[in-house]
């Protein structure tokens, strides 16, 4: 099943070329004779045998010959995954009649995307734990590609996939596409404000406010206007209090978000744009995430890896036996994959960074927290490490709800804010992946073995869990 999902993603991304594909040739001297190829295969097999791990990651496809040989010779108990950040390499190899195993039924996998984040999230959601994988850089890589894959390898090896169980009294939506959120008792929920920066002409605002669950503290809106507009009346049906302020955008999105920060006094702040929505399952996960102590969980995970005992220590922060004595709220922010929906809203843009399009939006701000950059804002000065959610996402409906002219106008605002550099372009030919594929990966996300052993021996925890990836260098 997992192989089929990864295959569907890569198959959707591979046919699309972004501009002219110009790549230096793979270095043929590395495998220029059959003897050299056989030697590399023997080397890989020795490494895999010594490691005794169930997964073998070949970083880079090269010309396809080494991957083909390994697909034929790796032991039955070892699954190979070829990771390629240059999809053109895969296309070139396939044009030479190689990598045919990828298109046939079997256990081996190929994951190709120009986005390192996409490859990281896909493998994490597929349950590939770096502790269970042997990694090998392809010998044919040009130096720039070798360095890119080394950076990805460090990110993959350093990220910690951590389970966080829901408190048994909190609800969890099994259907992440449901339009209703479960109620969470306030006694179990950290205080949260929803922040919105918006133009008065943004469509669908009534629906935006209708999504807000009653357990939030309040909503803070900063309008792109000289004064609070009449459009503010659409918030009347919101389930929680709404505070309105106004400030002309003037091409500075960071300043707008900082204005929201200045108006909030809760422990946590969630930022959404007017054309974004959280599915019910993600809303229901927020109290779980905000109450978890991920630094403790990561520490326990490392201890478990060192002693090779009880992966229960990977840390369900909400299980009774794991939660005692923890300092809640050790994570400074959570980033969410953003699905840019297109067409009938059942397809998500993908490839070249269009997915997962990570958005750092759930923040536990400190005194130094601020947004920087007028467009494509960056968060600085968070109060703790950053984690990426693997079992939830946010939806982006701009391409579904807005006509091309409106979208072009919006992108022009971004271009002006960026000084007309890095211009945004509409392209209906960008790759798309069925949302059902991404949803299935979300549903099954988690490190190998963690579903069975990572719940503190409490079967009641198993259905109610979220999985996050704590990023290296942030703990």
From TrEMBL:
* InterPro entries according to UniProt: Nucleotide-diphossugar_trans (IPR029044), SAM-dependent_MTases_sf (IPR029063)
* Record's protein name: Glycosyl transferase family 2
